[in-house]
Amino acid sequence: MKAVIGLGNPGRHYERTRHNIGRLAVRSFLERCPQLPRTENDFSVVYRLSDLALIVEPLVYMNVSGIAVKEICERYPVTPQECLIVYDDYAIPFGKLRVRKRGSAGGHHGMESVLAELQTEEIPRLRIGIGTEQPLSDLIDYVLGEFTQEEQARLPEILTRAANAIECFIQTDIETVMNRFNAPAEQHTKESPQAR
Q1: Ordered mean pLDDT values, 10 residues apiece, the chain (196 residues)
Q2: Is 190 helix (H, G, I), strand (E, B) or coil?
Q3: Count of alpha carbons within 13 Å of 188, Cβ hemisphere only?
Q4: Taking the domains of the chain in order of start, what are their residue ranges?
Q5: Residue 89 DSSP class
Q6: Annotated catalytic sites, by residue?
Q7: Dihedral angle sign, alpha carbons of residues 162, 109, 103, 138
Q8: Are β-strands 83-93 and 2-6 bridged in parallel, bridged antiparallel, or unpaired?
Q9: Quick one: how far is CA 195 from the chain centroid?
Q10: What percent helix, strand, coil does the chain show, rounded to 5?
Q11: Model's pTM, two decimal places?
Q12: Topology (CATH) of 2-191
């Protein structure tokens, strides 16, 4: 079994902020699978896609995301290597996707928590770019800020590509996702898997 976990902050105040784009991507995927069985654990809401995968929305704040991911690995037959952590990355241009099989947190506090709790860097991840070329006076205000009108206009297409990557992970493996979705954005629509 695999698990896909969309990192973000709970609550309406954070719902449409850049820092929550990983959670929005997971919800975009869930729209393709209506009426999945839903369970609420101590630290997350879990949707079960038959015996293939768990789709997880943590109920904890971003900086302690690892608590929720560790609970999933302990409660279900899922190893860290079978997880896909979906989250935002300021170091990547807005809307670009980057998939990795392992690695450091790259300064992302949510991923830092996941690596600390699971005690391994062997955790697949899908990073969604929220970067900007504009100079910023406060990075925290930027990532916790809501999307601009221009970003909002691009968001549906970005979330569709991210949901395609999630679907590809569930159906295949992380290497296939890397090969298909670390390509330029215009190639993603050609490479996306068919919904099942």
Answers
A1: 97 94 98 94 96 96 98 97 97 96 96 98 97 84 95 97 98 97 58 38
A2: helix
A3: 25
A4: 2-191
A5: E
A6: 19
A7: positive
A8: parallel
A9: 19
A10: 45, 20, 35
A11: 0.92
A12: Rossmann fold (3.40.50)
